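FORM 12-B: Structure-to-Sequence Request
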């Protein structure tokens, strides 16, 4: 949906924390796209995907970097990304150089924090 703001969550190492964070973001009125590096069975995606603004995409490792580049380029052009949250610091650095706001999700003993 062009014009609505979204959070893009990029998972390269586990998606549980990003899935939990997505609930908070949805409650705050953002649509959420989670992009997972690696293959996830369709049955699993169907179970973890909820209606109401959450989309989960699983991208095979070989296609992940080009997919991410074109996905972010398109959404930067239509200006609908509010923030990008990543699970790897290197990806966050690349996205910041791309001109988008990126935050790193870090697991702690008591849960997760954004850096």
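FORM 12-B RESPONSE
SEQUENCE OUT:
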């Amino acid at each position: 949906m062009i014009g609505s703001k979204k959070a893009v969550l990029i998972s390269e190492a586990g998606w549980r924390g990003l899935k939990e964070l997505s609930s908070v973001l949805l409650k705050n009125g953002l649509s959420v796209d989670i992009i997972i590096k690696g293959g996830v069975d369709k049955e699993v995606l169907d179970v973890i995907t909820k209606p109401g603004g959450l989309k989960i995409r699983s991208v095979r490792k070989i296609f992940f970097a080009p997919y991410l580049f074109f996905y972010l380029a398109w959404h930067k052009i239509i200006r609908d990304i509010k923030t990008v949250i990543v699970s790897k610091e290197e990806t966050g650095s690349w996205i910041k150089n791309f001109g988008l706001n990126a935050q790193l999700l870090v697991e702690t003993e008591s849960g997760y924090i954004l850096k």
